[in-house]
């Protein structure tokens, strides 16, 4: 009796997340948004959203085999984020651009979009997430200001790559089909 093999995608996402964390890098997800993805729609550009899934930017992060769930702040409001694993286009390190890309198949199903549920803002809530515009697979970090970390402003708020920026030297992404 032959059983269908499970997808390698969730395992690769977890591995890249762990690698980024172990190397003090910030893991970002590039997500192709459809009706199955629960994210704040006001931050979706060209059907995509970039999400910071670093430990400092998320609360209750769960990198499951079927979906990725966490809480994060967007414009000061805590939101519940739900991303089906098959909607992840890439995971990469913000600072170096190293990561892995995945093929995302477009489905003909045009159901009602999910909206991220707003959660009561409490002191234990997740820290601010970079409100990233579509950065595609070319990712660079913003230069450090006033001695801060790359990709952060002087106030320590997260920033994101802007469309049209060139990739960081040595940046690589591998597309997996």
From TrEMBL:
Region of interest (Disordered), residue spans: 119-177
Any single biological process term in GO: positive regulation of protein catabolic process
Alphabetical list of Pfam families matching this protein: SspB (PF04386)
Low complexity biased stretches: 122-135
InterPro entries: SspB, SspB-like_sf
SUPFAM superfamilies in alphabetical order: SspB-like (SSF101738)
Any one of the GO CC terms: cytosol
The protein's name in its UniProt record: Stringent starvation protein B
Originating organism: Brachymonas denitrificans DSM 15123
Lineage of producing organism: Bacteria, Pseudomonadati, Pseudomonadota, Betaproteobacteria, Burkholderiales
